[in-house]
Fold this sequence. Notes:
Layout: H1 2-7, E1 11-17, E2 23-25, H2 28-32, E3 41-47, H3 51-59, H4 65-72, E4 79-82, E5 88-95, E6 106-114, E7 117-122, H5 127-137, H6 145-180, H7 188-217, H8 225-291, H9 306-327
Amino acid sequence: MLEEDNSQWGLVHAFVLDGEGGATSISRQQLDSLKLDAGQSVWLHWDRGHPQTHAWLRSSSGLNEFSCDLLLEENTRPRLLPLANEELLLFLRGVNLNPGAEPEDMVSVRIFAAPQQVISLRLRPLLATDQLIDELGRGVGPKTASELLFYLAHHLSDKVDDVVTALSEQIDGEEEKIDADERYAPDHGLMLHIRRRAAGLRRFLAPQRDVYAQLSRNPLPWFTPENVGYWNELSNRLIRNLEELELIRERVGLVLESEHRRASERMNRTMYRFGIITGFFLPMSFLTGLLGINVGGIPGSESPVGFLGACLIIGSLAFGQWWLFRRLRWI
Protein backbone atom coordinates (compact mmCIF):
# COMPACT_ATOMS: atom_id res chain seq x y z
CA MET A 1 0.00 0.00 0.00
CA LEU A 2 2.90 2.31 0.83
CA GLU A 3 4.48 1.74 -2.58
CA GLU A 4 1.15 2.50 -4.30
CA ASP A 5 1.02 5.83 -2.45
CA ASN A 6 4.61 6.58 -3.45
CA SER A 7 4.06 5.67 -7.11
CA GLN A 8 1.91 8.74 -7.72
CA TRP A 9 4.99 10.81 -6.89
CA GLY A 10 7.26 8.77 -9.13
CA LEU A 11 8.94 7.16 -6.11
CA VAL A 12 9.17 3.43 -6.82
CA HIS A 13 10.86 2.39 -3.55
CA ALA A 14 12.08 4.24 -0.47
CA PHE A 15 13.98 2.48 2.32
CA VAL A 16 15.98 3.45 5.37
CA LEU A 17 18.79 0.92 5.85
CA ASP A 18 19.25 0.05 9.52
CA GLY A 19 22.95 -0.84 9.23
CA GLU A 20 22.26 -4.49 10.09
CA GLY A 21 21.15 -5.82 6.71
CA GLY A 22 17.50 -4.84 7.02
CA ALA A 23 15.49 -1.79 6.02
CA THR A 24 12.27 0.08 6.74
CA SER A 25 10.04 1.34 3.95
CA ILE A 26 9.03 4.99 4.14
CA SER A 27 6.47 7.13 2.33
CA ARG A 28 6.99 10.20 0.16
CA GLN A 29 5.56 12.41 2.94
CA GLN A 30 8.01 11.00 5.50
CA LEU A 31 10.89 11.79 3.18
CA ASP A 32 10.58 15.55 3.67
CA SER A 33 11.17 15.31 7.44
CA LEU A 34 13.54 12.33 7.42
CA LYS A 35 16.53 12.46 9.76
CA LEU A 36 19.04 9.62 9.74
CA ASP A 37 20.75 8.25 12.81
CA ALA A 38 24.37 7.16 12.86
CA GLY A 39 24.75 3.91 10.92
CA GLN A 40 21.58 4.47 8.90
CA SER A 41 21.37 5.16 5.16
CA VAL A 42 18.49 6.02 2.85
CA TRP A 43 17.83 4.51 -0.57
CA LEU A 44 15.39 6.29 -2.91
CA HIS A 45 14.52 4.53 -6.16
CA TRP A 46 12.67 6.76 -8.64
CA ASP A 47 10.92 6.35 -11.98
CA ARG A 48 12.92 8.55 -14.35
CA GLY A 49 9.96 8.95 -16.74
CA HIS A 50 7.60 10.39 -14.09
CA PRO A 51 7.16 14.20 -14.07
CA GLN A 52 7.16 14.31 -10.25
CA THR A 53 10.60 12.70 -10.24
CA HIS A 54 12.00 15.58 -12.28
CA ALA A 55 10.33 18.11 -10.01
CA TRP A 56 11.59 16.53 -6.77
CA LEU A 57 15.10 16.01 -8.10
CA ARG A 58 15.52 19.66 -9.11
CA SER A 59 13.73 21.29 -6.19
CA SER A 60 14.03 19.04 -3.13
CA SER A 61 16.89 16.59 -3.59
CA GLY A 62 19.66 19.06 -2.76
CA LEU A 63 21.60 18.13 -5.92
CA ASN A 64 23.05 20.84 -8.09
CA GLU A 65 21.78 21.49 -11.60
CA PHE A 66 24.74 19.72 -13.21
CA SER A 67 24.03 16.45 -11.36
CA CYS A 68 20.30 16.67 -12.10
CA ASP A 69 20.95 17.21 -15.80
CA LEU A 70 23.19 14.14 -15.97
CA LEU A 71 20.75 11.95 -14.05
CA LEU A 72 17.83 12.97 -16.27
CA GLU A 73 19.51 13.06 -19.68
CA GLU A 74 17.91 10.88 -22.34
CA ASN A 75 20.91 8.85 -23.52
CA THR A 76 23.99 7.91 -21.58
CA ARG A 77 26.63 5.20 -21.24
CA PRO A 78 28.19 3.38 -18.28
CA ARG A 79 30.51 5.77 -16.47
CA LEU A 80 31.65 7.02 -13.10
CA LEU A 81 31.83 10.70 -12.22
CA PRO A 82 33.29 11.75 -8.83
CA LEU A 83 31.71 14.86 -7.29
CA ALA A 84 32.61 17.19 -4.46
CA ASN A 85 32.06 16.21 -0.80
CA GLU A 86 32.96 12.53 -1.46
CA GLU A 87 29.89 12.03 -3.65
CA LEU A 88 29.64 10.33 -7.02
CA LEU A 89 27.41 9.70 -10.01
CA LEU A 90 27.32 6.13 -11.30
CA PHE A 91 25.66 4.96 -14.50
CA LEU A 92 25.21 1.20 -14.96
CA ARG A 93 23.61 -1.05 -17.58
CA GLY A 94 22.10 -4.51 -17.50
CA VAL A 95 20.19 -6.90 -19.71
CA ASN A 96 16.50 -6.31 -20.29
CA LEU A 97 14.59 -9.41 -19.18
CA ASN A 98 11.16 -7.74 -19.18
CA PRO A 99 8.46 -9.51 -21.25
CA GLY A 100 8.45 -8.47 -24.90
CA ALA A 101 11.90 -6.86 -24.74
CA GLU A 102 13.95 -6.79 -27.92
CA PRO A 103 17.43 -8.38 -27.88
CA GLU A 104 19.08 -4.98 -28.34
CA ASP A 105 17.19 -3.39 -25.44
CA MET A 106 19.12 -2.71 -22.26
CA VAL A 107 18.11 -1.44 -18.86
CA SER A 108 20.05 1.29 -17.13
CA VAL A 109 20.18 2.68 -13.64
CA ARG A 110 21.53 6.15 -12.82
CA ILE A 111 22.80 6.57 -9.27
CA PHE A 112 23.78 9.45 -7.05
CA ALA A 113 25.64 8.20 -3.99
CA ALA A 114 26.79 9.91 -0.81
CA PRO A 115 27.98 8.43 2.52
CA GLN A 116 24.41 8.02 3.84
CA GLN A 117 22.28 8.45 0.74
CA VAL A 118 21.71 6.61 -2.53
CA ILE A 119 19.33 7.99 -5.16
CA SER A 120 18.73 5.68 -8.13
CA LEU A 121 16.63 6.25 -11.24
CA ARG A 122 15.31 3.72 -13.72
CA LEU A 123 13.12 3.92 -16.81
CA ARG A 124 12.19 0.23 -17.11
CA PRO A 125 11.51 -2.21 -14.24
CA LEU A 126 14.67 -3.80 -12.84
CA LEU A 127 14.76 -7.38 -11.56
CA ALA A 128 17.97 -6.48 -9.73
CA THR A 129 16.13 -4.07 -7.41
CA ASP A 130 13.45 -6.67 -6.72
CA GLN A 131 16.14 -9.09 -5.55
CA LEU A 132 17.74 -6.38 -3.44
CA ILE A 133 14.43 -5.55 -1.76
CA ASP A 134 13.86 -9.22 -1.03
CA GLU A 135 17.26 -9.43 0.68
CA LEU A 136 16.50 -6.33 2.74
CA GLY A 137 13.20 -7.88 3.79
CA ARG A 138 15.03 -11.00 5.00
CA GLY A 139 17.62 -8.94 6.86
CA VAL A 140 20.55 -10.07 4.69
CA GLY A 141 20.82 -7.02 2.47
CA PRO A 142 23.37 -4.20 2.34
CA LYS A 143 24.24 -2.44 5.57
CA THR A 144 25.68 0.80 4.18
CA ALA A 145 25.38 3.02 1.13
CA SER A 146 28.63 1.61 -0.30
CA GLU A 147 27.32 -1.94 0.02
CA LEU A 148 24.05 -0.88 -1.58
CA LEU A 149 25.97 0.26 -4.68
CA PHE A 150 27.78 -3.05 -4.87
CA TYR A 151 24.59 -5.09 -4.39
CA LEU A 152 22.92 -3.26 -7.28
CA ALA A 153 25.91 -3.82 -9.56
CA HIS A 154 26.21 -7.43 -8.40
CA HIS A 155 22.59 -8.29 -9.22
CA LEU A 156 22.84 -6.57 -12.61
CA SER A 157 25.94 -8.68 -13.33
CA ASP A 158 24.11 -11.85 -12.28
CA LYS A 159 21.54 -11.26 -15.03
CA VAL A 160 24.36 -10.76 -17.54
CA ASP A 161 25.92 -14.06 -16.39
CA ASP A 162 22.61 -15.87 -16.97
CA VAL A 163 22.16 -14.47 -20.48
CA VAL A 164 25.76 -15.20 -21.52
CA THR A 165 25.50 -18.74 -20.16
CA ALA A 166 22.22 -19.31 -22.05
CA LEU A 167 23.77 -18.08 -25.32
CA SER A 168 26.81 -20.31 -24.81
CA GLU A 169 24.60 -23.33 -24.12
CA GLN A 170 22.64 -22.70 -27.32
CA ILE A 171 25.88 -22.73 -29.31
CA ASP A 172 26.98 -25.91 -27.50
CA GLY A 173 23.71 -27.59 -28.48
CA GLU A 174 24.08 -26.65 -32.14
CA GLU A 175 27.69 -27.86 -32.24
CA GLU A 176 26.73 -31.19 -30.67
CA LYS A 177 23.95 -31.71 -33.22
CA ILE A 178 26.35 -30.94 -36.08
CA ASP A 179 28.90 -33.42 -34.74
CA ALA A 180 26.27 -36.12 -34.17
CA ASP A 181 24.46 -35.80 -37.53
CA GLU A 182 26.37 -35.04 -40.70
CA ARG A 183 23.18 -33.98 -42.44
CA TYR A 184 21.98 -31.64 -39.68
CA ALA A 185 21.57 -28.04 -40.81
CA PRO A 186 21.64 -25.39 -38.03
CA ASP A 187 18.89 -22.80 -37.87
CA HIS A 188 20.43 -19.75 -39.57
CA GLY A 189 17.86 -17.45 -37.99
CA LEU A 190 18.80 -18.68 -34.53
CA MET A 191 22.51 -18.34 -35.25
CA LEU A 192 22.12 -14.78 -36.49
CA HIS A 193 19.97 -13.94 -33.45
CA ILE A 194 22.67 -15.27 -31.09
CA ARG A 195 25.41 -13.37 -32.89
CA ARG A 196 23.40 -10.14 -32.88
CA ARG A 197 22.59 -10.54 -29.17
CA ALA A 198 26.23 -11.23 -28.29
CA ALA A 199 27.43 -8.25 -30.32
CA GLY A 200 24.86 -5.93 -28.74
CA LEU A 201 25.65 -7.06 -25.19
CA ARG A 202 29.37 -6.65 -25.72
CA ARG A 203 28.95 -3.19 -27.21
CA PHE A 204 26.78 -1.87 -24.39
CA LEU A 205 28.60 -3.56 -21.49
CA ALA A 206 32.23 -2.99 -22.49
CA PRO A 207 32.40 0.56 -20.98
CA GLN A 208 31.16 -0.82 -17.65
CA ARG A 209 34.41 -2.78 -17.28
CA ASP A 210 36.31 0.48 -16.79
CA VAL A 211 33.75 1.69 -14.24
CA TYR A 212 34.23 -1.37 -12.02
CA ALA A 213 38.00 -1.18 -12.38
CA GLN A 214 37.97 2.49 -11.41
CA LEU A 215 35.86 1.78 -8.31
CA SER A 216 38.30 -0.93 -7.23
CA ARG A 217 41.39 1.23 -7.81
CA ASN A 218 40.07 4.52 -6.44
CA PRO A 219 37.52 3.81 -3.70
CA LEU A 220 35.90 6.67 -1.84
CA PRO A 221 36.72 7.10 1.88
CA TRP A 222 33.28 5.90 2.94
CA PHE A 223 33.61 2.61 1.04
CA THR A 224 34.12 -0.36 3.34
CA PRO A 225 37.45 -2.23 2.88
CA GLU A 226 35.65 -5.37 1.77
CA ASN A 227 33.98 -3.47 -1.08
CA VAL A 228 37.29 -2.80 -2.80
CA GLY A 229 37.94 -6.51 -3.34
CA TYR A 230 34.32 -7.08 -4.35
CA TRP A 231 34.47 -4.38 -7.03
CA ASN A 232 37.67 -5.94 -8.38
CA GLU A 233 35.98 -9.34 -8.57
CA LEU A 234 32.98 -7.76 -10.28
CA SER A 235 35.34 -6.23 -12.84
CA ASN A 236 36.91 -9.64 -13.49
CA ARG A 237 33.48 -11.21 -13.92
CA LEU A 238 32.51 -8.63 -16.49
CA ILE A 239 35.81 -9.07 -18.36
CA ARG A 240 35.18 -12.81 -18.43
CA ASN A 241 31.67 -12.26 -19.79
CA LEU A 242 32.95 -9.89 -22.47
CA GLU A 243 35.53 -12.47 -23.54
CA GLU A 244 32.82 -15.14 -23.61
CA LEU A 245 30.59 -12.90 -25.75
CA GLU A 246 33.44 -12.41 -28.22
CA LEU A 247 34.01 -16.18 -28.26
CA ILE A 248 30.29 -16.75 -28.88
CA ARG A 249 30.44 -14.50 -31.94
CA GLU A 250 33.42 -16.44 -33.26
CA ARG A 251 31.73 -19.79 -32.57
CA VAL A 252 28.61 -18.67 -34.44
CA GLY A 253 30.84 -17.75 -37.38
CA LEU A 254 32.50 -21.17 -37.24
CA VAL A 255 29.12 -22.96 -37.13
CA LEU A 256 27.85 -21.00 -40.14
CA GLU A 257 31.16 -21.50 -41.95
CA SER A 258 31.03 -25.24 -41.24
CA GLU A 259 27.48 -25.44 -42.56
CA HIS A 260 28.46 -23.48 -45.68
CA ARG A 261 31.41 -25.80 -46.27
CA ARG A 262 29.28 -28.91 -45.80
CA ALA A 263 26.63 -27.52 -48.15
CA SER A 264 29.34 -26.81 -50.74
CA GLU A 265 30.69 -30.32 -50.35
CA ARG A 266 27.23 -31.82 -50.81
CA MET A 267 26.69 -29.68 -53.89
CA ASN A 268 30.07 -30.68 -55.30
CA ARG A 269 29.31 -34.37 -54.75
CA THR A 270 25.93 -33.97 -56.39
CA MET A 271 27.41 -32.19 -59.39
CA TYR A 272 30.17 -34.79 -59.59
CA ARG A 273 27.67 -37.66 -59.69
CA PHE A 274 25.56 -35.78 -62.17
CA GLY A 275 28.62 -35.30 -64.39
CA ILE A 276 29.53 -39.00 -64.16
CA ILE A 277 25.99 -40.05 -65.07
CA THR A 278 25.89 -37.58 -67.94
CA GLY A 279 29.26 -38.74 -69.26
CA PHE A 280 28.25 -42.35 -68.93
CA PHE A 281 25.00 -42.11 -70.88
CA LEU A 282 25.99 -39.47 -73.41
CA PRO A 283 27.74 -41.87 -75.89
CA MET A 284 24.94 -44.40 -75.60
CA SER A 285 22.33 -41.70 -76.12
CA PHE A 286 24.19 -40.55 -79.20
CA LEU A 287 24.37 -44.10 -80.56
CA THR A 288 20.70 -44.93 -79.91
CA GLY A 289 19.68 -41.57 -81.36
CA LEU A 290 21.72 -42.27 -84.48
CA LEU A 291 20.23 -45.75 -84.89
CA GLY A 292 16.74 -44.41 -84.30
CA ILE A 293 16.80 -42.16 -87.38
CA ASN A 294 13.95 -43.21 -89.64
CA VAL A 295 15.90 -43.22 -92.92
CA GLY A 296 17.19 -45.95 -95.18
CA GLY A 297 20.66 -47.38 -95.03
CA ILE A 298 20.83 -48.11 -91.30
CA PRO A 299 23.28 -51.03 -90.92
CA GLY A 300 21.60 -54.25 -89.81
CA SER A 301 18.08 -52.98 -90.36
CA GLU A 302 17.29 -55.96 -92.59
CA SER A 303 19.19 -58.51 -90.50
CA PRO A 304 17.28 -60.68 -87.99
CA VAL A 305 20.15 -60.28 -85.51
CA GLY A 306 20.55 -56.52 -86.00
CA PHE A 307 18.82 -55.59 -82.74
CA LEU A 308 20.95 -58.06 -80.80
CA GLY A 309 24.09 -56.64 -82.40
CA ALA A 310 23.08 -53.09 -81.47
CA CYS A 311 22.48 -54.19 -77.88
CA LEU A 312 25.88 -55.85 -77.75
CA ILE A 313 27.57 -52.72 -79.10
CA ILE A 314 25.82 -50.51 -76.52
CA GLY A 315 26.64 -52.97 -73.71
CA SER A 316 30.28 -53.11 -74.79
CA LEU A 317 30.41 -49.32 -74.89
CA ALA A 318 28.93 -49.12 -71.40
CA PHE A 319 31.37 -51.69 -70.03
CA GLY A 320 34.28 -49.89 -71.69
CA GLN A 321 33.24 -46.58 -70.08
CA TRP A 322 32.84 -48.23 -66.69
CA TRP A 323 36.33 -49.76 -66.98
CA LEU A 324 37.83 -46.42 -68.05
CA PHE A 325 36.14 -44.48 -65.24
CA ARG A 326 37.35 -47.05 -62.71
CA ARG A 327 40.89 -46.88 -64.06
CA LEU A 328 40.84 -43.10 -63.89
CA ARG A 329 39.33 -43.36 -60.35
CA TRP A 330 36.38 -41.23 -61.26
CA ILE A 331 34.04 -43.75 -59.67
